[in-house]
Write a structure and sequence with these properties.
Length: 407
């Protein structure tokens, strides 16, 4: 990373960033309230824990070292909390810590409060089922799975549907309301042509040397977006790669984020939703049985760590991939850094720490953004829509080709 792309200090959850602070003071407490309302049969102990967590986050209480039951990620979270002490120079609060840590840790504490590891009961399942049973999702599948006359057109369509399905984020009502209604001006960066050129130029086919390398998709939301991830996976398997690795959250988080349970649930629902959806489900199950399609949950995707700080096993796999497709707003923050960049900072320079080609699909629901064509483009957006960075209306398709090992 050059001096021109050195990261600024991470966004804090305090009043220095209005959106982050509002998330901790208002949005997250409201989400915890909704969890209790949607799960009225929770026992008194769980309700008490939820209410205490809600209060602590809303008032900005000291985070302290919340007691986590022994689990594979408990040491990781204790270390992350210790790093916050070092960063803040004092015991962090829910309103003074770095926002990415505070937000991800809040969801980890919510999972602890509802004792998910003991019951396996997703506290967000009632919300997810609403979308799973909506007609809009199944109409989207019908529209997204028609054959076209070239692989480039099919890939471009799959990427577009997968991008705009990211608007339907159950943790963020304003973005959800926009759905998949698309204006040409909504797509701020569109690197699909560069991606297709890269695939053609390097002859990334199952017969080529690089064709044996898998494509990784870092999933974001369940429901419509996960359905489009599966359509994209099938498109990639037909035309680009012999194997797709779909990376999932290890436990429920951010309300709508996809877990293995969500994936199997949507495949089962597909089988009962008409011949086209059923045929897709059958094909995907065959892909899974043959090993062409893999579902890979990992606690890293729930953590507060960034993509340049990958655990060794995951880092090795991603850096050797043919292509890494990173989905969604939180994963975008994880990829570029949760900080305020000059919006025209080159995307390639920010993500050059990853050797593999990277494609980010993201609708904007937070402040970090890079890769706009000019500083003036950001100023024009500020004038036209002061909330353009956070209201979920606009999207990005950003591509970086392979980084030279010598860089």
């Amino acid at each position: 990373m050059s001096r021109a792309t050195e990261r600024s200090a991470p966004i804090r959850a305090d009043h220095s960033n209005a959106f982050a602070n509002n998330t901790m003071r208002v949005r997250l407490p409201a989400i915890i309230d909704e969890v209790e309302a949607l799960n009225p049969d929770y026992p008194p102990d769980i309700k008490r824990r939820l209410r205490q967590l809600r209060k602590d986050i809303a008032i900005g209480a000291l985070i302290g070292e919340i007691e986590l039951a022994p689990a594979e990620d408990s040491v990781e979270w204790a270390e992350a909390l210790r790093r916050q002490w070092e960063t803040i120079g004092a015991e962090p609060t829910w309103h003074s810590a770095e926002w990415f840590f505070a937000e991800t840790y809040a969801y980890r504490c919510l999972i602890e409060a509802v004792r998910w590891r003991e019951s396996g009961r997703d506290p967000f399942r009632p919300k997810k089922l609403e979308e799973l049973h909506s007609d809009a999702l199944w109409q989207l599948i019908e529209r997204s799975y028609e054959p076209l006359d070239s692989w480039e057109k099919e890939l471009n369509r799959s990427l577009a549907f997968d991008l705009w399905a990211n608007r339907i984020d159950l943790s963020y009502a304003e973005a959800k309301e926009r759905g998949t209604i698309i204006s040409a001006d909504d797509l701020l960066v569109d690197d699909r042509e560069a991606l297709a050129a890269y695939l053609r130029e390097t002859q990334l086919s199952p017969e080529g040397v690089q064709g044996r390398k898998p494509v990784f998709i870092v999933a974001d939301n369940a429901g419509s977006e996960l359905a489009m991830d599966l359509v994209l996976s099938e498109t990639l398997l037909r035309h680009v790669t012999p194997q797709v690795m779909l990376c999932l959250k290890a436990h429920p988080t951010f309300v709508s984020d996809a877990t293995p349970q969500d994936l199997w649930m949507i495949l089962k629902e597909m089988e009962a939703r008409g011949p086209k959806a059923a045929a897709l489900a059958e094909q995907l199950r065959r892909r899974w049985l043959s090993g062409q399609l893999r579902f890979l949950p990992h606690a890293y995707w729930n953590s507060s760590r960034f993509l340049w700080d990958l655990p060794a096993d995951l880092g090795r796999q991603l850096n050797e991939a043919r292509l890494v497709i990173v989905k969604g707003d939180a994963n975008y923050r994880r990829t570029v850094g949760d900080c305020i960049w000059p919006a025209h900072t080159p995307f390639n320079g920010v993500v050059d720490y990853l050797n593999a080609p990277v494609l980010c699909l993201r609708t904007l629901k937070s402040d970090p953004i890079v890769g706009l064509p000019s500083a003036e483009a950001a100023r024009e957006l500020d004038r036209a829509d002061p909330d353009w960075r956070v209201n979920g209306k606009r999207g990005l398709i950003q591509f970086k080709s392979q980084t030279s090992k010598s860089q």
